[in-house]
Design brief:
By secondary structure, the chain is α/β, with parallel strands linked by helices. Helices cover about 30% and strands about 15% of the residues. The strands form 2 sheets. Strands 2-1-5-6-7 form a 5-stranded parallel sheet, with helices on both faces. A two-stranded antiparallel ribbon has the order 3-4.
Length: about 180
Amino acid sequence: MGRRRPAPPAEVERPAAPIARVLCLHGYTSNGIIFESKLRGLLRATDLAGTFPTGPHAAHASWIEEAASELGIRGEARSWFVDDGDAGDDDGWGASRLALLEAGPWDGIIAFSQGCQAALRLVAGPDAPTAARACRFLVLCSSPDLTTMAGWVHAVQSPSLHVIGAADGVVPPADSRA
């Protein structure tokens, strides 16, 4: 009589490990919950693990009522800076910087609108920590006022993709070019 071979072990389906941890920064009047819902499909399709902090400051704008229905269900309108002004203004940056550093470590950053200003300040601003400067990539979408932040844009040592909306009604394409 021949010996029976043991059955091969059953393969266990394991989820693929994320290829990178990504810090995802929402725009003015949004928050981490809403931004996560908008990027969920992208992250799944690319095996990226996203971290979605929410800006520590309340957002105040006359047009905020337009977003009220979405925000009412999913949290408050938030901002990375005390005012929707120049990201170079230190007003409120300390709280945002702390929240972003606590969300680390991360491999890259995906940011939208005002979140782009926070991302640039985090990785290339005068107070950028060494760990943030080592960010492997940046994806900046509809970044406002990049012309005023050109020094930071050119100081970024990581590969970056700048997405500019040709028909963007809030951030004109010229404002997103540095």
